[in-house]
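Section 5.1 Outputs to date
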Amino acid sequence: MVAVTIDVTLSTVLCFVLIIISWHQILFSTKMLAVTPTHQELLQPQTYAQTQTQTAQTTQNKCLGLGIGGELDRLLSQHQHKLVILAMPAKAAGSSMKTFAARCSGNHNVPEHLLYRNRIVESGFLTLQQEFPSLIASHVSSDRDLQTLIRHASRNTLVVYVHREETSRIVSAINHVIEARVCPNGKGGTTTSSAGIPTNAMREDIPCTVREDVLVDVIQRGTNEIGLGAPQILTCGTYDAIRDNASVLPRNLLFVDYKQASKLQAVLAKHYCPEQSDEEAIFHNALSSKRPVGVALTGSTGGTITSGDNDNDNDNGNTTVVSLEAWLDAKKDILEYALKTKQTASCQTKTRNMEEALLACPDEALHYPTFSV
């Protein structure tokens, strides 16, 4: 009787063990089916990849609505930041933002490029006035400028980085540098610009013409605004600074696309200068009116500038002149590679991930990008 009882007990235990194992196998198979792409999905890899990317972005990042009543509006109401600092690379709505910040804070004596290096102290801006403006906007010139800001911003400071995709930004910067610095006077005749680069008027409808080899050299050297973009600012060191200050940044660091400048100004005006909140957003460009600029193509004369009646007549040694706009449109997608404009860039995958997440947001605004660190 004892042996029979033991056999029955062992049989019962073994049955329970087999049942438990079977249930585990069923649950595991169900989970695998949930995360494994179906045959139909694999036949459409782009759709499947997009779905996975969107899921990852949704779970790891927080889009911000910039409208009145949106997430940024509520964030500003809840935390009442004492200081808002708007930082941006060259040609990312900086002039517009600086004009807005000066008008909104009522302080028009903010030194140019306040976030550059130690300018806030060297300029005397910190000590010359008792009341500090609630809004500050400034370009940043390097990753060090942005890293310093991220590391030292107080809990009551909101840092907004206004971003612009680099190819778009560098095209705008080239236009600006050539128009404002290489062709500063907009008059006909041979001139010498403020940058010491010779230009030549060859067409009546284009007051300033720049040799193509000179233009290429200006771009390659990263002259002025051309070399002040994301590759120089959003580096591994910058992302390390974001990671190292994660305890403070979740409510204090925003990334906003430059095209959303008007929405950003409207919601900031509501909280920091409500008397101006109904006014139109400020759109300011450093050049009040664009000057037509031509490019004398090197290939048409071997680099020698000559003037001719026919723009496309190269048979007699005449130089072909095209507009700068047409030149950039034809070459913009090869310039960064050909001229190695990203020599100092690092952690570009993180920047591109940030850009994808930013553009996926309805208002192209992103709360502290946790994915990038």
